[in-house]
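Bug report

Summary: C-alpha cells for Lysosomal membrane ascorbate-dependent ferrireductase CYB561A3 differ between web form and batch submission.
Environment: batch mode, default settings.
Steps: 1) Submit the sequence below via batch. 2) Compare with the web form result.

Sequence submitted:
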Amino acid sequence: RRCHHRPTAMLNVPFLPFCAFLGTLGLLCVAMVGTWCQHWRGGFSLDGSSRTFNWHPVLMVTGLVVLYGAAALVYRIPNTWSSPKLPWKVLHGSLALGAFVLTVLGLAAVFRFHNAQGTPNMYSLHSWMGLATVLLFSCQWAAGFGAFLLPWAPVWLRALYKPIHVFFGSTILLLSVASCASGINEKLFFSLKNGTMQYKLLPAEAVFANTLGLLILIFGVLVVAALARPSWKRPDSDSPDSRQVRDALGG
C-alpha cells in the first residue's frame, strides 16, 4: 500500500511553485523566439521584407501559446476560489482577447510579407493548421463571452456549454503548439539551405530553434496537465453565475 501512495505524493506539486516555473518557461520561450529572429534572421521592421515576417513567430508564440496558456490557468489559482467569480471571468476573457489581438497582428505580418514578396499564401500544412487554430480561437472567445460574461445568458446554457468550452480551450492550445512547432521547422527548412549552413548539418541556429520548439511543446503539455488535474480545479459555487453577475451590477 505504501508503494502505491508514494508516487502520488511525489507528484503532489504545489500550484504556485508550478505556476512560477511555468511562467518562467513561457518568458524563456518569448525571449528565445525574439533572440532567434534578432540574432539569426536580421531583426524586425514593417517594410514588407523578411524582417517584417520576423514579427510573425514572435507574436504567435507570445499570444497564441504563452498568453493563451496564462488565460487558461486563471481559474486554477487557489486564492481566487473564495472570491466572486466575475472579476476572474473578466481577467480570463481579457487575457484571451489580448492573445487574440497579438495573433491577428502576427497573421497580418506574414500576409504582408508574402504579398510584398509575391509568395503564395495558405499553401502549406503549417498555414492551414495555423489559420484553423485562429478561427477556432475566435469562435471560442465569442462563444465564451456570450455564455459567461453577458448577464442575460441562462444558467442552463452555461452549464451545458462549460465542458465544451474547457475541451476546446485545451484543444486550441495544443493546436497552437503544433502550429508553432511546424512553423519553426518550416522556417528552418526555407532558411538553412543553399548558400548557408544546411539544416541537416545542424548549425547553431538549428540547435537553438529546435530547442525553442521543444520548450514550447513542454509549456503546452504542462498547461494541459494543469488544466486536467482535479485538485487544481476551482470548486463549483453553490450560487449560480447569474447571481454573481447581478450582484456585481448592483442588483
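Above is the batch result. After comparison, the two runs are identical; trailing whitespace caused the diff. The two ends are 54 Å apart (CA to CA). The first helix runs from residue 2 to 10.
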